[in-house]
Structures are given as structure tokens and as C-alpha cells.
UniProtKB/TrEMBL annotation:
The chain holds residues 172 to 437 of 437 of the full protein. It is found in: Cell membrane. Residues 41-257 form the Histidine kinase domain. Its main location: membrane. It is an enzyme of class 2 (transferase). This is histidine kinase.
Amino acid sequence: NVRKTFEYRIMRYGEDHLLLIARDVTRVSQLEDMRRDFVANVSHELRTPLTVINGYLELLPNDPQSDPLTSKALKEMASQTLRMRNLIEDLLVLSRIESSAERIYENTVDIPAMLNTIKVEAATLNQNHGHTINYHIDTDIEVFGVETELRSACSNLVFNAINYTPNNGTIDVYWQRHKDGVRFAVRDNGDGIEEKHLNRLTERFYRVDKARSRKTGGSGLGLSIVKHVLNHHNSNLDITSVVGEGSEFAFVLSAELIKQPEVVTE
Ligand code: ADP
């Protein structure tokens, strides 16, 4: 007693006929569910042993005077377990978003307030980079959406700009009214990305420069998370980039998602 899943296509057939093609994708969608559950379960199970390892690492005395090799090993282990923790957290976020049944019209999100908290985190991350970060925010736009998801999408884009732009760059963050709704964008004046990479960037674990990404501690899942969040909010990620000039990562939330101010009648 399996529920069937179909994909439909309607095509014109001759002058006055339409052809409906129904494809049974039940098996494909079952496999997709299994893959998602598997990733979610494994990530969840890896979290506990990693927390224990981390806890013990923090307890060990780390005195470089006593034994340089031990000291180096402890530092490296701490940094690698942190990387692994970030990866697991991102895998969990991704699987949560992929199976998210939360309806976007149930809650509103105060994006400017959310951007204020991202701004504080960005300033901390920026301490090692020295970028000038400008915010151009229209404060009176509230949207329907899932706050945790939109926060994750926006912060990923801002943190990427900070991490991948060579030090002392300029980064502009926009949240502004747009002809089709409201637009969020992060523009940087970094090295830019070659065209051949652009449409692969949102694939899981796709990185332009593996060594560099490893240094940032990124999991390689950031833009994949952004893509899924935007998909859930009926939007897409637009990436434009010019090598040697910089990149812009942007998305538009359609006017339907903007909460209209309540009209007060006397
Ligand atoms: P990561 O964890 O590696 O940062 P992401 O999915 O967030 O993973 O990004 C994928 C890749 O896209 C990065 O490894 C980097 O090569 C590239 N990238 C993302 N944002 C920028 C940017 N603002 N400028 C240049 N390259 C970027």
C-alpha cells in the first residue's frame, strides 16, 4: 500500500490536442528520502563522540614549553575537530531544510533585526581581515518566511564574502525594495570567480580552491544550504562575478512574501 509520486508534463500534440505524460517517480523519491535520513542519522550519531573528544582536548594542559610536539598535536587536533563539528552542524542544517515542512506563510521575519545580529558576528569574523563593510538596509520591510533558514542563508553569504575577499577589501550588504519584491545582496571586491565554476558553486562540497576553503574552516555546504533555503522561499541565488573585480551573490524575495502593513480603519 505505497503512496505513489508522479511527475507530470503537458505537451502540445498536433493542432488541437494536449498530451499529458505522467512519470512514476515513487522509487526515486523513496531513495531520496532514504539518503536524507541516512545523512541526518549519521551526522547526529557523529556529534556525541566528537563532543567527548573536544571536551577532553580542552581539559589537557597545553604548555608549549614542556613538549613542542605534544603542543602542536593538541592544537592541530583541536582545529580539526572544530572543522568536523562545523561540517556535521552544516549537514544537519541541510537535511533539516531539505525535509522542512514548515510553511513559509506562518511566520514573519524582521530581516533588518536579523541583519543586526549578523552584523555583530560579521564584525568579529572581520577582525582578522580588516574589510570595510557597508550596510544598505531598508528598515521597514517584513517578510513571510522561516527565520532560522533565512538567517543561515544571509549569514553564509556575508561570511563567505569576508572569508574569500583578500584582506582590507570592501563589502556591501543590501536589503532593499526591488521591482519584483525585495532584494538581498552581498557584493565584494575580491578576486572574483571564473565563469566555469559559477553554476557548480551551490553543489555540495564544491569549492573553487580547496586549500583556501580548508583554511576558512568552511564545510563546503554553505552555498548548498543557501540554495535550499531560497528554493523553499520560491527564490534563486543569482551569482555574478568578474575575475579581478569581485563577486555579487543576491536573491529576490517576491512581493507575495512581503507582509503588507495592516490597514487601520476608524
Ligand atoms: P565553503 O565552506 O567552502 O565556504 P560554500 O558552499 O559556502 O563552501 O562556498 C563554495 C565555494 O565558493 C567556496 O569554497 C569558494 O571557493 C567560493 N566562494 C563563495 N563565496 C565566494 C566569494 N564571495 N568570493 C569568491 N569565492 C567565493
